[in-house]
Amino acid sequence: MATTTLAPGAYVARPGLWYWLSTWLTTTDHKRIGFLYLFNSFFFFFLGGLLALGVRSELAVPGLQYFDNTTYNQLFTMHATAMLFLFIIPILAGLGNYAVPLMIGAADMAFPRINALSFWMLPVGGALMFGGYFFGGTAEAGWTNYVPITARAYSPQAGQDLWIVGLILIGMSSILGGINFMATIFKLRAPGMTLMRMPIFVWTMLVTSALAVFATPVLASVLVMLFIDRNYGAHFFDPSAGGSAVMWQNVFWFYSHPAVYIMILPAMGVISEVLPVFSRKPLFGYKAFVFATASIGALGFSVWAHHMFTTGAVFLPFFAFMTFLIAVPTGVKMFNWLATMWGGKLRFTTAMLFAVGFLAMFLVGGIDGAFAASPPVDFALQDTYWIVAHIHYVLFGGSVMGLFAGIYYWFPKWTGARLHEGLGKIHFAIMFIGSNLTFFPMHILGIQGMPRRVADYVEEPGWATINLIESIGAFILAASFLVFLWNVLATLRGPKTHEPDPWQGNTLEWATTSPPPPYNFDHLPPIRSERPVFDVRMGVVDDPWLANLIGAPSGTGRPSLTAGEHASAGATDAAASGPGPTGGESHR
Amino acid sequence: MPPRPDQRRSSPWRRRAAVLAVPVIAALVAGACSSLYPPDPVTEQGRAIDELYNIVFLFAAAIFLAIEAAILYIVLRYRRGARDDLLPEQTHGHTGAEILWTLIPFVIVAFLFFVSWQALGRVVADPAQPAGVRVKVTGFQWCWKFEYLDEGVKIEVPARNSKGENCRDENGGPPTLVVPVGELIRLQLHSPDVIHAFYVPQFLSKLDVVPQVDESRDNVFDFTPTAVGEYRGQCAEFCGLFHAEMQLAVSVRSQADYEAWLTEQKNKPSPTPPATPPPGATAIKIGADPVQKYDQTSLQAPANTPFVIEFNNRDPGQSHNVAIQDAGGTLVFNGQPIVTGPAEATYNVADGLAAATYRFFCIVHPTTMFGTLEVK
Fold first, then answer.
1. In this complex, do A377 and B207 lie within 8 Å of one another by their Cβ atoms?
2. CB 3.0 to 4.6 Å from A305: which of A214, A224, A319, A337, for a disulfide?
3. B370 contacts B361 by C-beta, under 8 angstroms
4. Does B224 have pLDDT greater than 90?
5. What is the mean pLDDT of residues A508-512?
6. Is residue A347 part of a domain?
7. Does A423 contact chain B (CB < 8 Å)?
8. Do B91 and A380 touch (CB under 8 A)?
9. pTM for this model (two decimals)
10. Which residues between 168 and 187 in chain B have a beta carbon less than 8 angstroms from any beta carbon of chain A?
11. What residue spans of A342-462 are helical by DSSP H?
12. Contact B120/A at CB under 8 A
C-alpha cells in the first residue's frame, strides 16, 4: 500500500540536527504534539517538584532556615502554579492529544495547526510566569492569586503581571485545545464508532474539553480585569473605590472548580481503560460511567463557592448540597471500577498497579471532600494543612497516579518498547510510600490548626515531628521519579520490540503499529462495540478491515511563531508597566 | 497499605505475613484515626462543629475502611494465575446493582447535608441574639487590634517590638483578646487592607476578615466560650510577607477576673501612647499628600539615639505609614499604626539606628512612596 501518498507532509527522516529540530518546531502531527506536551509538562513537573522540596525543607523544622518569607512565598506560589497550570492540565491534554485520534480511528485532530498553537502557548506562558524571577521576583500570593493581596499596592512586582499574562496564554491554550478535542470527537470518529462505543477515556476528554471551553474564558476575563486594575488604574476589586474583594474569588473559582475536574476526569478515563484491560473484563456499567462523567462535569459548575464558605459572602446551604451531590456520581464510578475488577483475572503490570494505587488514594481525597462540603466542618478545616492534604490526595493520589498508569500503559504504543516492569514496580512502591508519608500527616496538622502557606509554624506538641515526617516523605517521593527517569532513558536506548498490542488491549490504538505511522491506520477493524480490538481478537466480528482514507496534514511553523509573538507582546506589556525603581524587594 | 499484587502464588509464609499484618494495620489505622480528631472545642459553636465532625468522620471512616478492604480483597482474590489463559465471565453491568450504589451514596450525602444544615444554625452568628461583649477586631498587615465597643478599651501591640519580632509586645506575647466565660462574644471583623482570617484552632472555626469600606458589612463572628484558658490563634488567609507571624491569643476568664481586667484597663493612663517620645528625642516631621506622595524625599536623623517620626497623612482615604529598610533591604522599622488620611501618627524609633544611609518608604505603597534617610 502506498502509504506516503496519504500523508504528503508527514515526517520523513532526514539527517541533521537542524532538520530534526525544525520537524519538532513545525509538526502538526497529533502524536508528536502529544510528545511535546509530555516533554514540556515533565519539565515543569520537575521544576515544580524542586520548589516543593524547597517548601518541605523549610518546613522540616520550625524556624526559618533556608529561605526568607518572600522567597518562601514565591516557592509555594510557583510550585502550585507549575503543578496545576503547567503540568497536570497540559499533560493530561497531552495524553489526550496522542490517544484520542487513535482511539476514535482518526488520522489526526480536527484542526492540526490550532493543535500545535495550543501546545506552543504553554512553554511561552510558563516562561513568562517563571520569568518574573528575573524582574524583581515571581508572583508570591498563592496560585489562587486572591485580590487585594495581588493588587498593585500590596504586590508591586512585575512578576505578578507576568503571572497574569502567562496564565492568560495558558488559558488560551486550554480553550483552543478544548474546541479542537470537541470538533475531533464529534466529527472525526471512524465509521461504526458511535458515541456510546467511544472509549471512556475519549468520553472524559470530551467532558473535560467542554469544561475547558465553558470555564476558561471566565478565568481569562477575570485575569484581564485584574491586569487592568493593576496597570491602568481600574477598581474592579478595590473595595475603597466601590469594587469587591470577594468578587475575584467568585469568578476565579467559577473557573477553578471545574478545573479540578479538568485535572481529574482524564485520569479517571485512563483508569477506566487500564482496569478492564488488565482485568480481562469490559468496564462494568459503561453507560452509568458516561452519565456519571457528564453529571460530574455539569455539577462542577454549581459548586464553586465551597472554596469560599468562610468568606461570609455565600449562600451556604445551596453550595453545600451541590457539593455533597457530586459524591454520588463519583461513588458510582468507584463502585463500577471495583465491579470491573471483581471476578476478573487481574494481571499486575505497573500500569495496573498505578491504577489500583489511584483507587486507594483517590478514595481518601474523595472522602476528604465530604468533610469540606459540610460548611461547619469546613470552618474548622478551611485554609489549614487539611485542605493541602485533600488537594494532594485528589491531584497526586488521583491525577498523577492515573497519569503514570497511562504512561506505563501507552509507552509501548508511543515508542515500540515497554518500560521495564521491575523498575516500574520499584517506582510505584517508592512513590506510593513517599506520597502517603508526605500527604497523609497533613490531615493531622490541619485539624490541629496549622494554617497553609506559612513559612514557619509555632511549636505545638507534635508539629515538628509530623512536619519532619512529611519532609522525609517528600524526598522519598522525589527519589521515585529518578527511578522513573532512569527507566524511561534505559528503555528508549534499549531494543524495540514494536509489538502492536502488548497488553491485549480493547481500543483502536492497539489495532495499529507501535509507534503508529503518521497517518495512524492502514486499516481499521469494524467497530461494533466499545471494544473493537477485543472483538477482532475473539473473532466476534468479521475480519475484513476498513481502509482509512483520511490524510494527515502537512507541517507548519506558524503556531510556534504565533505563540512567540504573544509572548513578546505580553512581556512588553508587563515590562512597560513594570516595577518601580526598587522592584519587588522593597517591602521586606 | 499498598496492595502487594505482584505475587503470583501465595506461599504459607506470605499468608502468615498477611495474618501478622492485620494487627499492625489495625494499630496504624487506630492511631491515625485518633489523631484525626480535632482538639477539644472550647466554645458552644465549636462543640456543635465537633459533634458534626464526629458524624461525618464516622461515615468517612466506615466508607474508607470498607472500600480499601474491598480493593485489598479483590486484588488478592482475583489475581491471574501464571498459566491461566481463560477469559473470565464478561459482565457488562447490572442495572439493579448500579441503581443500588447510586442510591446508597445519595442517601448518605443527603443525610450529611441535612445534619450540616441543622448545625449551621448553631454556628453562624445570629444578629437577633444579644451579645454580652462586642469587640471590633481589626486584622491588618500583619497584626491584630481589639477594640471593646461598649467599654472604650483598646488592645494593641507594636507592629514590631524592640527585639524586632512582628506583632508582639515587649514580653513576646501576641495581642490578646480577653473575654468572659459563658457569654456570647460578638466580633466585628474589620480589615483596612487585604483579606485575613480570624482563626482559633480550639474554636474549630474561622471567618475571613474582608476589607469593606462600609463597616456595617464587616463579617460578624459569634462565639460563646465554655472553658477558662488561653487559646492560640492566627491569621488563616494568606495575607503577604509576614502572614505566618500574624498571631493572636484569646484569654477566656471567669466573669470576676474579666471585670477586674476591664477595670485595670480602663484605669491605665490612657492611652499608653505607643510612641512615648523619650525625653530629648529628636522629632522628624514628614507628611503625605494626595495622591500617594510624601512631602519630602530625604530625611536626617541622629545615629544611635531614639527619635520619633511625626507623620501627617493628608492623603484622604489612603493608608500610609513610614517604614525604614537598610541598604540590604532588611526592614528595620515599620511605623504602626498605618493611618488612613486625613490623620496623624507618631512613630517612635525607640532604639535609634546605626549610622548609615537607609531607605524610608510607605509599607502600603513601597514603589511609589519612598526616599532616603541619612543617619549620622
1. no
2. A319
3. yes
4. yes
5. 93
6. yes
7. no
8. no
9. 0.84
10. none
11. 350-373, 375-381, 385-392, 401-415, 421-448
12. yes
